[in-house]
Amino acid sequence: MPKILMVEDEACIIEAVEKTLASAGGFCLVAVKDPDRAVSAAISEKPDLILLDIRLPGSDGRHILKALKENAATRVVPVIFLTGMSGEGDKVIGLNMGADDYVVKPFGAMELMARIHAVLRRVRPHSSLDSVDIGGLKLDAGSRGASFKGKPLRLQPKEFEILFLLASEPGRAHTRGWLIDNTSSYGMPVNTRSLDTHIKNIRRKLGTGACLIETVPKVGYRFVSPHERL
Ligand code: CA
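^ thats the input. predicted complex w/ calcium ion below
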């Protein structure tokens, strides 16, 4: 169920959006009135979309948008601006800053839902690839958060990438060459020897989950599908 985070100070607008989403069905809404809590709520709630008011008490929605786009944990979350401003300039600035769309207040329920659906459709193909939740392992590519059976894993960036690649396709064997080619070019390049070291470190950090990564002789590695362990 898509979760929507709304940053809005006006109770009547929150209520209207609550009603709209409730009658549309299939959405979960979290509303935050305090602009200072917007970014922390976006990090903790992990919404699929943010509705962001531009005029907030003591703050400007555009500053919040900037903070959201600068934070690795929230950068990828699409944002729809709620604006009372009719000036074209404000809308253009918002879109240039990375907002996905805007809705001018007062807006109708139909219009709001159409915008939300359009933005979610646009970002969905990627969002499904942004996280992995399998066999007790949780990985979030946006925040780089990793945990196994509820305990955080302290993975180095390359270890995260390698584990993400393997766990995204459980059951499938990946060659060392493919894994090396598909890790990012940041930092130290991965070669066959360092790949094996990364795998060793990932297994050590997974502890009892070490067996989730299987060595496939003469090929490479694969993430064991949970069905196989039953
Ligand atoms: Ca407002």
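The chain has eight helices and 14 strands.
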